[in-house]
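Case study 2.
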Amino acid sequence: MSQENPDNTDVTRMIILGPSAQVSPTELVQKLHMLELPLTIKSTCYGAIIHGQEQVVKDAMERIRKLDPYNIFTKDRGFPPGDPRRCRAKRGAAREGFHQLEKEFELLDCVREALENPREVHVEKYEKIAPDSLKKIIEECEEE
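Prediction:
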């Protein structure tokens, strides 16, 4: 039984440009092509999709994020570009997950701000509530 070499595994990553990105999707795709790496590259409205061997994709991501480190984000995509199970052209509608991506996009400026201006955060740790106290709270709520 042979073990699969993770370096030869094909992966697909979405590259999402944040709202404040200094790079357009067209420029992003051009820069990806200029890397001359063995990748499948697809332009999208939010940036690009790249597909290839895992190490090549990682290399491309590291190099492309240098263009605008706080505004270029990546996300795993389970299907390669053009896969009929996810391709909008074949399905005739927005692909599954697109609406989730739209919601995530709305938060990217907040993420950029946090990346550009990191600060220490202290999270208050709450004490556990005793089962008897919880029962009392439930009983009080049921009485109302």
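Residues 6-116 form a domain with the Alpha-Beta Plaits fold (CATH 3.30.70.250).
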